Amino acid sequence: MNGEQPHTEGKSTKLAIVNRFHAMLENGIPVREITVPALMDELPWSQATFYQSFNTIGDVVMPLLLEMQEAAMERSKAWYEDDGRPLLERLDESIVGGVDVFHAYGRVMKAIIDCAGQDETIYEMWTQLARYYEADIRNNIESQQAAGQIRQGLDAGNAANFLVYGSMWQYILHFGGPTKSPKKPVVETLIQAWRSLLYLK
Questions:
Q1: Residue 105 neighbours by CB distance under 10 Å
Q2: Backbone angles phi, psi at 121, to 5 degrees
Q3: Domain extents in the chain
Q4: pTM score, whole prediction
Q5: Residue 42 in contact with residue 21, Cβ under 8 Å?
Q6: CA angle, corner 199, sides to 193 and 201, nearest 5?
Q7: What are the residues whose beta carbons fall under 8 Å from the beta carbon of 64, sequence distance 6 or more?
Q8: Which of 49, 167, 53 is nearest to 99 (CA)?
Q9: Residue pLDDT, tens place only, 41-76
Q10: Which of 22, 79, 116, 146 could in theory staple to 123 by disulfide, Cβ–Cβ 3.0 to 4.6 A?
């Protein structure tokens, strides 16, 4: 048990640093203004402790990106899983779930975009995340086309690209700035966009 204590404490310290970083973003502090001294100022450890877990401020973004991805996948799965409910009901539920997640992580998304230009690892992770969503949406569109639920003439790849990047920029625009927009208008815009593109004949 004693042999595991340093590892446990290390994980707890790292989590506290990540949570503090997230809180600073949520308080409207741009990532470019977050420094190691400022980040560690209200934590009970020295700046040296930061460098035991991270090399740069940009590295702190990575756990939040993975946390955001996991939450988004869980909250948006209704559209992908046929549980007997009407298709549009499941689509709407997925969009509402996604908006809930990205409302909470909008400033994290903005920080990721800001860091990606200077950090190749973050850029690759962000690109992989976007490509993952794009492939997932494309596959589901093609599956629903085969089932006759979406018109055959729609290019699934182009539609998926538009939906992924259009949705992401809605999240960043409305939830990534100093003042977050209400969720309802974003939900309504995305529902209309997705329904119109995929299901209007």
A1: 25
A2: -65, -45
A3: 61-199
A4: 0.84
A5: no
A6: 115
A7: 18, 21, 22, 105, 108, 111
A8: 167
A9: 989 999 999 999 999 888 898 899 889 989 999 999
A10: 116
